Amino acid sequence: MDIISLPIKYDREKIDGNYRLVMAAVKRAKDLSQGSLPVISSKAQKITTLAIEEVASGAVKILTGEEAVKASEEAKKLTHQKVIDEAQQKETMPEDMTELEKDLKIYLSEKGESEQKKTIEDIFGDS
Q1: What does the alpha-carbon distance between residue 25 and residue 31 come to, in Å, rounded to a whole number?
Q2: How far apart are CA 57 and CA 41, in angstroms?
């Protein structure tokens, strides 16, 4: 098991403090856990260790100030556009039904047909 030695050595000109290092590592670990590929090769087996190594080595760019604000706004626009595109795609393409939905649709249609064939005498018959 690899352990990161403390204190962590990093470029103090690129990363202005331990808090920024930790926050960048947290965001990077989240990206890695959601399927992003590692930027560096490492022996680390845990996502958090890999994220700290990537941030400390400078392999991941850390944005601050106006640059970070602009990148955040751009990310929101892309996310909003992605949601709109997915909604439009759903409208144009028929949704594939799962087997359960198909079975339920058949059951309900058969049940509706059998109920329509009943007469009033069948429902309120001589009891």
Answers
A1: 10
A2: 12
Domain range summary for the chain, segments of one domain joined by +: 1-62, 69-116
**Three-class HEC string of 44-109:** CCCHHHHHHHHHHHCCCCCCCHHHHHHHHHHHHHHHHHHHHHHHHHHHHCCCCCCHHHHHHHHHHH
Cα separation of 41 and 35, whole Å? 16
Tens-digit pLDDT string for the chain (127 aa): 455 666 777 777 777 888 888 888 999 999 999 988 888 888 888 899 899 889 888 888 888 889 888 988 888 888 888 888 877 776 665 556 677 777 787 877 776 666 556 666 666 666 5
**How far apart are alpha carbons 63 and 23 in whole angstroms?**
12
What is residue 8's three-state secondary structure? coil
Spatial distance between the Cα atoms of 76 and 87, rounded to a whole number of angstroms: 17
pTM here is: 0.54
What the block records as the tokens of 108 is: 């309900």
